[in-house]
Amino acid sequence: MSDSNPARSHHDMGGQPAGAVERTEHDYSLWEKRVDAMLILLAGKSRKLMTVDELRKNIEAIGPDAYDRMSYYERWIHSIAQTLIQRGVINIEELGRRMAEVEERHSRGGS
Amino acid sequence: MSSHHEDDHPHATRPDDSDRLTYYQTMEIAVRELLIEKGILTADDVRRQVEDMDGRNAGMGAKMVARAWVDPAYRQRMLADGNAAAQEVGLDRGLFKLVVVENTPQVHNVIVCTLCSCYPRWLLGLPPDWYKSRNYRSRVVREPRAVLREFGLDLPDGVTVRVHDSNADMRYLVLPMRPTGTEALGQEQLAALVTRDSMIGVTVPVAAT
Amino acid sequence: MASEDHTAAETLASLPARFAPGDRVRVLRMYPLGHVRTPWYIRGKSGVIERLCGAYPNPEELAYRRSGLPAEPLYRVRFLQQDVWPDYRGSAPDTVDLEIYQHWLEPARAGK
Fold first, then answer.
1. Chain B positions in Cβ-Cβ contact with residue C97 (cut-off 8 Å)
2. Interface membership of C35 toward B (CB under 8 Å)
3. How far apart are CA C76 and CA C99, in angstroms?
């Protein structure tokens, strides 16, 4: 793990020591493609409900350990949800309730 | 590793693991449903946008590169205004300014976004995992030649390496050099030689044997 | 993908450009918190203006839902790798180019 200098944010990693580049590629899952799609739709001209800048800012605010553990689109959906809450498009309670409902539906065998 | 052929097909989607939902998969479903119920999006909007991105692949950028190889005046226009050059060959001009950087016998270019993973997605599709990885983003600005060697590209000392950190509002495309031995090829055949990785700058195109 | 089209010639009110291609500039040695697009590794380093990219709303403001106007000049600045990394082992002419917003730059004298 690189030095934890408070002057350098964790995402700002240019020049930090790191290992060999693993040339992995993966086909994106549908849920990942939908995250990508939602960002484009929300930030687009016809809605302007968030900006790419807010997406980045909220990703940068993810703590270092979480940032490293999360996958790219996990960071994105985290940030999109955070931004929508900040903007009052959704609120925490309805997000929480809906997530619980989704889980319950899924464990019952639905989607 | 990144043969152009795989970029011709509509992108495969890895099936979601239907046994269990992760926390963030649950969040994606919940956010999407809430947005649909609030009339902000429709399911159709999401589906169409996913399909739109699925249809984008390196063949699009390759079309520009191949045209530049056969048409010196187009090459100049591409270097002067990448967005207009994309539009000229029937592609989207995109929402970000496209800066095209040209490889020459003296200069080799390579692209990174150290801060997040900015990439000319509207011309190449979604970026590969390694481009977004900690190791690439950390090391390619500091030791580009070592990273390029990991990709199989060993550049002589006499070639200058230019790294472009796509850290603000520009997006970059490398215009690779046309491989030798391709004089007889037409534009479409040339485009087939141009890989996504050569437009990022971690490899160079080679003539098919 | 952005909510503003960054490809069109800017018609937004913008600050005048202070620098021109060829000018030697230094990135300010400052370390605020918050959403900045000037990477940590380039702070305090000197390079040369390669081109004026255009003028854009300040992302440091956009991230907090402010307008970021007047638009600010954004430059591509070219740095010699050997000036950025004390242990750089590539070729002497190797460079790294970054996009730097005007408020992060000050003039630098030749040689520093």
1. 162-165
2. no
3. 4
Residues of chain B with CATH 3.90.330.10: 58-200
d(CA B49, CA A36): 9
The two structure tokens encoding residue A34 = 């939908």
Residues of B in contact with A103 (CB under 8 A): 21, 26
Alpha helices in C37-107 (DSSP H): 59-62, 81-84
Instruction: Indicate the domain borders of chain C.
Output: 24-107
Going from the N-terminus, what domains does chain A have, and what CATH number goes with each?
A: 30-107 (1.10.472.20)
Q: What tokens appear for B57 in the block?
A: 């692949």
Coil vs helix vs strand at A110: coil
Helix axes A92-107, B23-37, angle to 10 degrees: 120
d(CA B63, CA B206): 16
Specify the residue for token string 């993973």: B117
The residue of C3, C7, C10, C88 whose CB has the most chain B CBs within 10 angstroms, and thus the best one to mutate to test that interface, is C7
Q: Tell me which residues of chain B have a C-beta less than 8 Å from any C-beta of chain C.
A: 83, 93-99, 114-115, 121-122, 141-145, 157-170
Q: Could you tell me if A83 and A54 are in contact, meaning their C-beta atoms sit under 8 angstroms apart?
A: yes
Fold for domain C24-107?
A: SH3 type barrels. (2.30.30)
Q: Which tokens hold the place of C76? A: 């591509």
Residue in this structure with the two tokens 């403001």, named with its chain if needed: C61
Place of tokens 């199989």: B152
ipTM of the complex model: 0.95
pLDDT digits 0-9 by tens, B174-199: 999 999 999 999 999 999 999 999 99
pLDDT digits (tens, 9 = 90+) for A58-104: 999 999 999 999 999 999 999 999 999 999 999 999 999 999 999 99
- pLDDT given at position B209: 65
**Which of the other chains make 3 or more beta carbon contacts under 8 angstroms with chain C?**
A, B
Distance CA B51, CA B125 (A): 11
How many Cβ atoms are within 10 Å of A16's Cβ, its own excluded? 21
* CATH 3.90.330.10 is the classification of domain B58-200: yes
